Hints:
Elements: E1 2-5, E2 16-19, H1 22-39, H2 42-55, H3 58-74
Antiparallel strand pairs: 1-2
Amino acid sequence: MKTMTCNQLGGACEKEFHANTFEEIAELSKKHAMEMFQSGDQAHLKAMNEMQELMKTPEAMKEWFENKEKEFNALSENK
């Protein structure tokens, strides 16, 4: 199992997510983002707006996603 923070995944806080695969951690991050969106958290809303700008360019979004997956894969397993 590996750990990444909301901030490492493009978010706005240090909440930790723990998962065995990048897909799992991305899903946890997405769920957290939706909770923060619903609560109106300004810092997360700003981060989401930045992510939406990135999504306007599919190649940039693909590159971002691949880099985050590489970062996840390079992490050591939790002890």
